[in-house]
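Handout for the seminar on molecular recognition.
Each group receives one record of this type.
Step one: identify the two inputs.
Step two: read the structure output and locate the region that could contact zinc ion.
Step three: write two sentences on what you found, then compare them with the reference statements printed after the record.
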Amino acid sequence: MYPNGTMKALTLSYDDGVEQDKRLVEILNKYHIRATFNLNSGIQTGASKWESHGCPIRRMNIAGLPALFAGHEVAVHSLTHPHLQELDADTVRNELEQDKLNLERIFQTPVHGMAYPYGTFNQSVIDIAKACGLRYSRGVLSTHSFDLPADLLAYQPTCHHKDPLLLQLAQSFLDMEQPATPQVFYLWGHSYEFDVDDNWHIIEDFCKLVAGRDDIFYASNAEAFGVV
Ligand SMILES: [Zn+2]
């Protein structure tokens, strides 16, 4: 059971620590909805930038991030955003362990979780994540489900924000009677996609629909998964 006596938690997860996270945080804070931001501390710099469909995308510099993400969770996304399953075990360990240590130092808080870069992983990556003290990690395959898996290091999300079923899934989560075991609505994406696709209304509409309910715990990922 969650702290407010409910069995339903809602959490968001956004990757890569880009400039558009500022606008996303502003919206989330307005609705008292909480998220986990997955960061690549090895390349968390404004020099890391690219373009998508003519839209500039840029990682944020580290200074200012603790204030920006206050009230939310930060989690590992690896040092440099590689395909982890293609690396040797020592390098995977370096990518995860050093990112975790960097984030703990920068944010002055224990770091419990991760999102796999590109959403890809295998059992060896899971084992290394576990050995690094990570308690959960997320892929990118939509389940359209609110169930928690046996292994939280192989977690797959409810859906991406572009999923055409987003509001329908959210409504069925709101309508669900109090379950006997914890159920989690887990939304993920990249905040830059709202700029690229010119669809910030999606997250506003979603927040407006799900906010302000007594029977929902607005959680970070770690809180939704009960690892803190
Ligand atoms: Zn990423």
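Reference statements: Residues 15-16, 77, 81, 117 surround zinc ion (CB under 6 Å). The chain is about 30% helix and 20% strand.
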